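Assess this:
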Amino acid sequence: MYMKQFFLFLLFSVCLVKVGFAQKTDPDKKADPDSTGVVSSALLPTVAPLLLFDESKEKEEKKEKKKKARKNIWFGVKTMKGYTRRTLRGQEYLEFFNYTDAGRNPNPYIRDVYWFDPKERAIRTEGFTQGVGYLLHGPYERLVNETVVESGMFYYGMKHKTWMVFDDQNVLQDKAHFSEGWAKESRISYYEENSKSIEKITPVQYGLEEGNFFHFYPNQQIAVTGEYKFGEKVGVWTEYWDTKNTKAIRKREIQYQEEPYTKNFRPYIRAEWDQDGNLVYRKN
């Protein structure tokens, strides 16, 4: 009788341990992106940019351009030259560029940050990691069958200054101006006319919204982030609680179409959190 009771107690204890272990290692709970509204601040800009389109700095750079180009020094940074080559449907595609190994993280405001992947010998715009790739920095040219079809300048992976596009006869087709990743058509609004306290940054290129959108609280904490493509909101747009810059807590996520001009798509609230980051609503 005693042995039977002991065996039942032992079996019950083992079951409890298994249940507890299963709860702690539940992969679904760990992978749930909505389990908390608190997000890593490393994924967001910490403060609004103070100054965009610095014309005075551009004038100074022009004076030093000819002097330093021979030494591969661009914007005060020593760079290395690189190239990529590929053949597709009988045409040869070449890219000539400069890049830097300076330990600098990409600007979190800019969507398209260009970097050189030496392993695959390719230029990419997503997934940059220090130690794996190198940010493009300095002049860039793209050629098709030895004819230049695009040229411009990079600044730590971001398009900078004047960019030009040509046809296969080397006739200019388009010209665009950038300042450290921002197209100069971009719209910037401030809380006060003479203040540097930014309210909204709306990226604009060729007359259409294109890139990452930011809305800030008066204390310059992020309030809303989202993305535009061809003038349309796409992907998930996120609103954040005003925590006085103590931490980033999601307030609401709205799901828009994944690609622009998607027919019959209606945006919807994907999830909501309270001010402590607790999930209060999620659309199934």
About this structure: The helical segments are 2-24, 27-31, 55-69. The longest strand covers residues 134-144. The chain has two domains: 33-49+186-284, 53-184.
